[in-house]
Design brief:
Length: 463
Amino acid sequence: MQSMRWAIVAVLVNVLAVSQVLATGVLLPDFRPIVEENTPAVVKILVEYDQQVSDARAEEEIPEYLRRFFEFRGGPPQQQRQSMGSGFIISEDGYVVTNNHVVEGASSIIVRLTDRSEYVAEVVGLDPRSDLALLRLEASGLPVLKLGKPGELQVGEWVLAIGSPFGLDYSVTAGIVSAKGRSLPNESNDNYVPFIQTDVAINPGNSGGPLFNLEGEVVGVNSQIFTRSGGSIGLSFAIPVSVVHNVVTQLRETGQVTRGWLGVTIQDVDKNLAESFGLDRPRGALVTQLQPDGPAAKAGIEAGDVIVTFDGIEIPTSTDLPHVVGLVPPGTKARVEVIRDGRSKTLKVKVGGLDADEKPSIALAAAEAESGSRLGLQVREVDAELQTRWGISGGVVVAAMESGGAGERAGIQAGDVITLVGSTPINSVQAFVRAVDKIKPGKSTPLRLIRRGSPLFIGLKLE
């Protein structure tokens, strides 16, 4: 009886929804023309791996929330492993776009069209950082898809996907754009793709397939899902067409991809740090470290600068900066607006290439700890050899902390290396004590730290 009541309620809700649509004159989109026109250019990709590669892939530990679509559960197979994905044709002479993770390490790649014709595909180029791959077929006169214009997609807009989930060829699913600019670092902790988030049902086999707008243009390439079961739960992520344009053009011309690079390590700006650096609100990317002789260092950017615009584009959060810089060709001269000591300053930087970047780590000196300060800390100096080795100008190591002290409340941890208090560089214990003594109570002051090899800023406020 209860189930009958719920069924009646569901029917009434649907009737009400239809009535509202009819009353307002707003109709749901008709996807049929898009599907009919574009499906012939969507392809199914069949991949084989040799035993050695197959076993290695089967043993990889991939976070469940970012499971790649080609993942197979269970132990390593005993035979040659097969996998599948989707893709789409972008030129009549046989160029095909798909995901890097679909074809990486493959011993053979077969591309199947809707008419069941098959072609052996050649890999033109792979780009693991964006998870894109470009293939080439020995064919001509093929159907093609049109790439949309970057930046036109809006949150709330209808989109649909065509692919082969679980081997069900050329399935169509639809939904809306849930968000844009999502940052999902890959296995190498690179973060150069501002993913499109949608609620389109995407499952294993859709990977590499196109995401369309209502104009029938490709606005993204389906790449990842958030899942706890292995199937769709309404959180799907696609590579935006701006990245596809950039990467595919470079792969087609040179077979490799070069990205813009500044040579900075950055972090986000919270409320305390915004106050510390004289910002009206939390925004921008806070520079915590610079690569020696990198583009940013040569341009005069300093640790403690907050980058708020790059090449005329606003940087709301730190994760937006790599997305913007990565699309700029190396050698380009760009204007960078930074906030330094509470004032805006514009600098010109010649953008470098990504591959010059290295991530430093740091070792601590084994000197005796000396007495601390108003922060409730005991600190010691960093060995000179390590300063030279890691490019640190001085600094003190936090050896011990007073429970409940100001340092602990601010988030400082034992083992942190403090290199800057406010705008004062720290090159000795004495310099650290003097700088801390000058901190005004009630005012937030930025402290620059090196923690387990990674630089960061925290906002400190004394009672």
